[in-house]
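Backbones bend. Our protein:
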Amino acid sequence: MRDTSLAAALLAALAVAGCSLRPVYSGGEASAPASLMADISIAPIPERAGFLVHQALEEQLGRSVAAPHYRLEVALDDRITAFGLRGDSSAARERRTLRARYRLVETATGQVLLDDTAGADAGIDRVSSNYAVVAAENAALDRLCVDIARQIRARLARHSRAAPK
């Protein structure tokens, strides 16, 4: 049994080594994703969700250089949908959905280099305390904004690896 698991692990390691997978950030600060992300400014995003996504993106991408070559434009759609009715016709649960459409634009030419979407959902239990419901909705929004920023960062990193040099 132990020899079988060792052989399987060795076979898996050989298969991965032969498939030309490379770490996205190989090269550290000089890697294509790190260079791109340091050269992006984030356009202002309206509303509270926009502020939170902007803040999360700054944490994910880092602060940009003084004169960035790229601008990241983000438009958000934040919705709360109630479902699961109780006997008194009040909602038992909510789903908070945050969708982002983002574009990476070359600052000098205005050319759109990447146009994509990201999305995240969270379920919220409706309880008898309105304060608890509002707190749960805000906590869900905080998590969703970080998740959106991570998705955008990952997509930008893939784009930088695929873009011609």
Q: What stands out?
A: The domain at 28-162 is CATH 3.30.160.150 (Double Stranded RNA Binding Domain). The two ends are 48 Å apart (CA to CA).
